Amino acid sequence: MKNKCRILLLVLICMGMAGSGVYAGDSCFSLRLSGQAVPRLSGDAGDGDNVPSYDDAFDVGLGLNVEGAWQLSRGVSLLVGIGCESQSGKTYKGISFDDREIIPVYIGGKYQLTGVKSPWTPYLRADVGMAHLDAVDISYLGTSTQYWGSSWEPMLDVGAGVEYRNGSLGFFMEIKARFMDSPESSLRPFSDADAAWSLPLTVGVSFYL
C-alpha cells in the first residue's frame, strides 16, 4: 500500500507541475492537491466486552488526495476526488493490528459563502462515495489471522474550508466530519466493528487551469 501512496504522490506532483504555469482569469476548472490527518471520533473495532475502539487499534490516519473542481455557476462547484490513507496498527492487550489502508473515491459539491470578490473564499462542501478498505490481520502469541476482509464500503462527509487565491494558485484548509461504514468481518462475531466517524483535517494547494 505504501507503494500505492508513493505512486499517487508522484502523479500529484507531475499534474501540479503541468498545471502550475497556466492561468485564465475566469477559470472554470482547478486541480486540488492536499494532505490530511484523520483523527477518529467514535466507533468500536470489534464486538463484545473489552473490545478495542478504532483509536485503541490504530494511530491517526495520514493521507493524500487529488481532486478536480468544475465551477458550475457563480459560487457552486462540482468535485471529483480520490485519496490514499494509511493508519498504523497498534497493540491492544497483546493483540497486534496490522496497518489499515483506505482508498476513498467520491464526488461532491462546494458552495462559496460570499459573493464579494476577495482573495479569501470561505466555503461549505459535502461528498459521497465509496472507500476501498484493505484486509487487516491481527497477531497474538505468534499466531496471525485475518480480522477484516478487503471490501468497498459507503462513505460520506460534510465540512467547511477557506481558500486564499493568488493568481493561478490557491491555498486551502478544510475540516470535515466523515462517516465510513463497517469493514467486512472475518472473525464473527468478534470482529464485527461499528461504522466509524472521523474528523479529516486537510491542507492543500489548488492550480487554476
Would you mind describing this structure in some detail?
- The chain has two helices and 15 strands.
- The longest helix is centred in the first third of the chain and has 18 residues, at 2-19.
- The chain has 209 residues and is mostly beta strands.
- The strands form two sheets. Strands 1-3-4-7-8-11-12-15 form an eight-stranded antiparallel beta barrel. A five-stranded antiparallel sheet has the order 5-6-9-10-13, with no helix packed on it.
User: Which value, in Å, is the CA radius of gyration?
Assistant: 19 Å
Read across the widest sheet, the strand sequence of neighbours is 1-3-4-7-8-11-12-15
Give the helices and strands as they follow along the chain: HEEHEEEEEEEEEEEEE
How many H/I helices?
2
Q: Which percent bin holds the helix content?
A: 10-25%
Number of strands: 15
| SS content category | mainly beta
Termini distance?
Answer: 31 Å
Strand content: over 45%
Shape: elongated
Major pleated sheet: 8 strands, antiparallel, barrel
